[in-house]
Design goal:
The chain is an alpha+beta fold and 268 residues long. It folds into 2 domains: 30 residues; 230 residues, Class II aldolase/adducin N-terminal domain (L-fuculose-1-phosphate Aldolase), CATH 3.40.225.10. A hairpin with a 6-residue loop joins strand 1 and strand 2.
């Protein structure tokens, strides 16, 4: 009798596991297929660079759109950026559902990435960071403005996302729902950078090197602007024409610092 009960229990467990696997297969989105390993390596490098340059610490994340399907993107599992490896990289759909999680935990704020990719077909890479020098500009009335030719991309204004206003009440400040992700994407609009009140920033680009470049120089511009303002007196910012020319000149050379930063970050 006990033998039959034992066999029934084993069979029941097998059937339950089978149904569970089928349920996961039905709810998980299909993969867009493998990507060139060099792109995964670049995503790993992007995370390491951002950590090495002081743009992220134990928190923050970077992603890249899947080259074979604009409805998919790649991002690491929930882990400190400096520790990301190729094995940590996961594929997501634009609802920010993991294709094949295999027990790996996702970032709570992955909706930032999915909703920006959905709203901005031109964007190929997204960075979310808690860059320390930008925080004051997200909580004060002082706008972040380009005063450095390397940050000319900031011309035209840097919008500030207020999650309390978007949510209609107090939150834990995390973009943990698609609705909040859509609200952030709407605030970003067509801009390359948006600040997040009391939180950090989101930075986008048409490539991983450009998104990383903009993340590094947004932090640097914020630091320099605070220093210039502390000196007293008026601050001379780049005007629109200067910014346009500087962006046309410097904006196409992002590969140079990318190669340097990548070599340094991966050597550690």
């Amino acid at each position: 009798m006990q033998g039959r009960l034992g066999r029934r229990a084993v069979l029941g467990g097998f059937v339950a596991a089978l149904f569970a696997r089928r349920a996961r297969a039905q709810t998980s989105p299909a993969s867009a297929g493998p990507v060139d390993p060099s792109l995964v390596d670049d995503l790993v490098a992007a995370n390491r660079i951002l950590a090495d340059q002081g743009v992220v610490d134990g928190y923050g994340h970077a992603s890249v759109r899947h080259p074979a399907d604009p409805q998919r993107y790649l991002m690491s599992r929930s882990i400190a950026p400096e520790l990301v490896t190729a094995a940590d990289v996961m594929e997501y759909d634009l609802d920010s559902t993991a294709v094949d999680p295999r027990g790996r935990t996702s970032y709570l704020e992955r909706f930032i990435h999915g909703e920006i990719y959905r709203a901005r077909p031109d964007v190929k890479a997204v960075v979310h960071n808690h860059s320390p020098s930008v925080i004051p500009f997200g909580v004060s009335t002082v706008p972040l403005r380009p005063l450095y030719h390397m940050s000319a991309f900031l011309v035209g204004g840097v919008p500030v996302f207020d999650i309390k206003r978007a949510a209609g009440g107090a939150t834990d400040m995390l973009v943990r729902t698609p609705a909040l992700g859509r609200a952030l994407a709407q605030t970003l609009g067509e801009r390359p950078v948006a600040l997040m009140r009391g939180h950090g920033a989101v930075v986008v680009g048409d490539s991983l090197p450009r998104a990383v470049f903009r993340s590094v120089y947004t932090e640097m511009n914020a630091r320099l602007q605070a220093q210039a303002m502390a000196l007293g007196g008026p601050v001379t910012y780049l005007d629109d024409e200067e910014a346009r020319r500087a962006e046309a000149s410097v904006g196409g050379t992002t590969v140079r610092p990318w190669e340097l930063w990548k070599k340094k970050a991966l050597a550690k």
